[in-house]
Give the backbone structure.
Amino acid sequence: MTTETYMNHPNFGLLFKICPVEDHQELFTTLYAQRLFFLVTQGPTGLKFEPISRSDAKLLVEIRLRMLRRTGQAEEYKKLQEVHHNTFQ
């Protein structure tokens, strides 16, 4: 069973979680167009939405893929690789 995470952005509507990036940071994209990307940071004052470029988002996903492959997390790697292909190819 796959678990998908969604978040409501105040201006851009429903966002889809692509992957975690660092502690308390996750990468999201707009649900339907998948053209706008946001680095969402959860802090003591709440959520912070930082828009990032498509190329920066792709780089963050590729870094995450390398980390998953290096640490032997095959199932999560396979899922993220599929998301990468669907989003950036």
User: Anything to note?
Assistant: The first strand starts at residue 6 and ends at 9. The mean pLDDT is 91.
